[in-house]
C-alpha cells in the first residue's frame, strides 16, 4: 500500500489541514500543510536555482568572487520571482554582500569599447544614456557578451506605464494618467535626442545601428535601469552630462522584491568594496527575503516599478483640483 492512503492517515491529514487553517496566512498554511503530509517542502517547490539560467549566473558570479550559500532564487505566490533564505536571518545580519566586480556602473561602460565614443561625444551623454547604451549593445552581442549570464535573467518585458498601450493608460485615474504620459514623453525624448549619438557608434557594429538601438531596445534598457538599479553615488566625470550618476546594476541582489513593511540598510562599503544590504528586521527560514525600495505610495510603485503593494502603509489618494471641486460641490 502506498504511504498515506489509509483511514488513519486521512484523519491525520484532515486534522493537519484544520490546524493550519486556524493559524491564518495563505502562504504559511501551504507551508505547514505540504510539509506535514510528507510531500516535498514548499522551499523545494518554489526553488528556481536548478534552472539553467541561474546555474550559469551562479558560475558567472563565482568567477567574480561572489558566492552566497544562503539566498536562493525562487518563485513566490503574489510577488513572483525573488530570493528565499535557506536559514533564518537575524536583525542586523548582512543579507547580501556583492563585490564591486559584479556591479555594472558607468565605470564599467567607460572601461568598455564604448568609452572612447562617449568621451568624444558632444554634448556629453547622461550617465543613464551610457548605461542604457551598454545594455542594448551587450544584449545585441548575445553569446559574445561577458554579461550574458546576467542579461539572460533580466525580464524580457516590463509593466511600467511607459510600456502600456495608451488605451490602458487612459483607464488610469487622472493624476496617474498625467504622470504616465510624462514618463512616455521622457523616454521618447531620450530616444530622439540620442539618435545621433547612436549613429556615431556605427563603426562598432556590422549591422545598421538603427536596427540595434531601436525605440523598443532603448525602452527595455531604460526600464531595466529604472526598476533594478541600486543607489550608488559615483564621482562626477567630465565625459558625462551634469545629471547625477547614482545608478548601479547589481546582478543577483536585484532579485530582491519590495515590501513596505521591512527595513534594511543598503550602501556600498568602501572598506570591503562590496555593496551590502543589512536586515533591520529578522526573516524566517524558507521565507521570501524582502528589501524596501523606499516609503513609496502605490502610484509611485506603479510608475517606477510596475506593481502595487497590497496593504501599503504609504498608500494615499491623489485628488486633482477639478476632481476636488466636483466632490465639494456634490
Ligand atoms: C529589483 S526587481 C526584483 C526582482 C524581480 N521580481 C525579478 O523577477 O527579477 C524589481 C521588480 O520586481 C517586481 N516586484 C518587486 N517587489 C514586488 C512586490 N512586492 N510585488 C510584486 N512585484 C514586485 C516588480 O516587477 C519590480 O519592477
UniProtKB/TrEMBL annotation:
Cited Pfam families: SET
Q: Which SUPFAM superfamilies match?
A: SET domain
GO: which molecular function terms?
protein-lysine N-methyltransferase activity
Per the UniProt entry, the signal peptide is none
The Basic residues compositionally biased stretches are 1-17
**Which residues belong to any copy of the SET domain?**
69-294
Give the transmembrane region(s). none
Q: Which superkingdom is the protein from?
A: Eukaryota
Q: Which InterPro entries match?
A: SET_dom, SET_dom_sf, SETD3_SETD6_MTase, SETD4_SET
Extract the ranges annotated as region (Disordered).
1-24
The record ties this protein, via PANTHER family, to: SET DOMAIN-CONTAINING PROTEIN 4, UNCHARACTERIZED PUTATIVE METHYLTRANSFERASE
Q: What is this protein called?
A: SET domain-containing protein 4 isoform X4
- Species: Hipposideros armiger (Great Himalayan leaf-nosed bat)
Gene designation? SETD4
Amino acid at each position: 500500500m502506498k504511504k498515506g492512503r489509509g483511514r488513519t492517515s486521512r484523519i491525520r491529514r484532515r486534522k493537519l489541514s484544520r490546524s493550519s487553517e486556524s493559524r491564518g496566512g495563505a502562504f504559511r498554511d501551504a507551508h505547514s500543510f505540504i510539509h506535514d503530509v510528507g510531500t516535498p517542502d514548499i522551499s523545494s517547490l518554489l526553488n528556481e536555482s536548478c534552472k539553467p539560467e541561474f546555474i550559469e549566473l551562479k558560475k558567472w558570479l563565482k568567477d567574480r568572487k561572489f558566492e552566497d550559500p544562503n539566498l536562493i532564487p525562487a518563485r513566490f505566490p503574489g510577488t513572483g520571482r525573488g530570493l528565499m533564505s535557506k536559514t533564518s536571518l537575524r536583525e542586523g545580519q548582512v543579507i547580501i554582500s556583492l563585490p564591486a566586480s559584479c556591479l555594472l556602473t558607468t565605470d564599467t561602460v567607460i572601461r568598455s569599447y564604448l568609452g572612447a565614443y562617449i568621451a568624444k561625444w558632444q554634448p556629453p551623454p547622461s550617465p543613464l544614456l551610457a548605461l542604457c547604451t551598454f545594455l542594448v549593445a551587450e544584449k545585441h552581442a548575445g553569446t559574445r557578451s561577458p554579461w550574458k549570464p546576467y542579461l539572460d535573467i533580466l525580464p524580457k518585458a516590463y509593466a511600467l506605464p511607459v510600456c502600456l498601450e495608451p488605451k490602458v493608460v487612459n483607464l488610469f485615474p487622472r493624476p496617474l494618467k498625467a504622470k504616465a504620459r510624462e514618463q512616455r514623453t521622457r523616454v521618447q525624448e531620450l530616444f530622439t535626442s540620442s539618435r545621433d549619438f547612436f549613429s556615431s557608434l556605427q563603426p562598432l557594429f556590422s549591422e545598421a545601428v538603427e536596427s540595434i538601438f531601436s525605440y523598443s531596445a532603448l525602452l527595455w534598457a531604460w526600464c531595466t535601469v529604472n526598476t533594478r538599479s541600486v543607489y550608488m553615488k559615483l564621482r562626477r566625470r567630465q565625459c558625462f552630462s551634469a545629471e547625477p550618476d547614482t545608478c548601479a546594476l547589481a546582478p543577483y541582489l536585484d532579485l530582491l522584491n519590495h515590501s513596505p513593511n521591512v527595513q534594511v540598510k543598503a550602501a556600498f562599503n568602501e572598506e570591503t568594496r562590496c555593496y551590502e544590504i543589512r536586515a533591520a528586521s529578522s526573516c524566517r527560514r524558507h521565507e521570501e527575503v524582502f528589501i524596501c525600495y523606499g516609503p513609496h505610495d502605490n502610484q509611485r510603485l506603479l510608475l517606477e516599478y510596475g506593481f502595487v503593494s497590497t496593504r501599503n502603509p504609504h498608500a494615499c489618494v491623489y485628488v486633482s483640483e477639478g476632481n476636488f471641486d466636483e466632490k465639494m460641490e456634490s
